[in-house]
Amino acid sequence: ATDYLTKPFGKPELLTVVEQYVGPGASDPPKLDNFLADLLDD
């Protein structure tokens, strides 16, 4: 647990730390406009 926030992170540094713990994000994220409506229709 040595990756703690000791200084202001830039976007690339923060993304690297987050991806290390939760994994990379979706390469094609869903459109949020109709995401919930489409989810409820299924």
Q: What number of structural domains do the residues give?
A: 1
User: What's the mean pLDDT score?
Assistant: 77
Instruction: Quote the beta fraction.
Output: under 5%
What is the tally of beta strands? 0
Q: Main beta sheet: strand number and arrangement?
A: none
What is the helix/strand order?
HH
Write structural notes for this entry.
The chain contains two helices and no strands. It is an all-alpha fold. It has one domain (11-41). It starts with 10 loop residues before the first helix and ends with a helix.
Structural descriptors:
single chain; 42 residues
Could you write a compact summary of the structure shown?
The protein is mostly helical and 42 residues long. It has helices spanning 11-22, 35-41. The mean pLDDT is 77.
Task: Please give the structural blueprint.
Blueprint: H1 11-22, H2 35-41
